[in-house]
Known about the structure:
Blueprint: H1 2-31, E1 66-70, E2 76-78, H2 80-84, E3 89-96, E4 102-112, H3 113-120, E5 128-133, E6 139-143, H4 144-147, E7 152-158, E8 161-162, E9 172-175, E10 187-193
Parallel strand pairs: 1-10
Antiparallel strand pairs: 1-2, 3-4, 4-7, 5-6, 5-10, 7-8, 7-9
Amino acid sequence: MLGMLGLGALGVATAPTLQRGLESFLGSAADKDPTGLTGLLPNGGGFRYYSVTSSVPHKDEDSYRLKIDGLVDHPGTYTLSDLRALPQTRMVRDVQCVTGWRVPDTPFEGVRLSRLLDAAGVRSSAGAVRFTCFDGAYSESLTLDQARRADVLVALRMQDKDINHAHGGPVRLYVAPMYFYKSAKWLSGITVTSDVRPGYWEERGYDVDAWVGRSNGRDDETT
């Protein structure tokens, strides 16, 4: 009995390390997989790795930049340090993918997108926001009203850890009430526009207004 208890305790103690190792392995494999099939593999945290490109460059404290431009009076660029110095908002919500998988009670933390838009001085002719990513392919859009919601973040942390590369770090978008494809990974650009421009998956048939349970022909519980 004591031996079994010892093994159980060892399993609990080593589980976080094993999960981090699995995340690292799958993330690295996904980076080198031109087929995208590694994106179908779940990790221990319930998430699945997926990229629309065969590889994604890594960004760190020195190389990461987030550019804000378009219909604004004060375009600018943020470093990771700049973003971390701003007031942070933490929220815990379920994450729902349009393909069906769901990860409950997932913490995200970062800067409210509305704060960055206010600092940039959005012009009266603006009606939407477009997001681009340093994978060189992915994009997303929200209406200006959607982008100003309190539950839309430029996220720096996920599951109470800095967002790693495989999860779209060091900075990703988080749109809590919408299907997870709206939460663009590897965020590098925020451009204020006059109208919504369909993003990567919308151009391939997904709904632009991707409210969980009210779009894409699905009836999932809201997040």
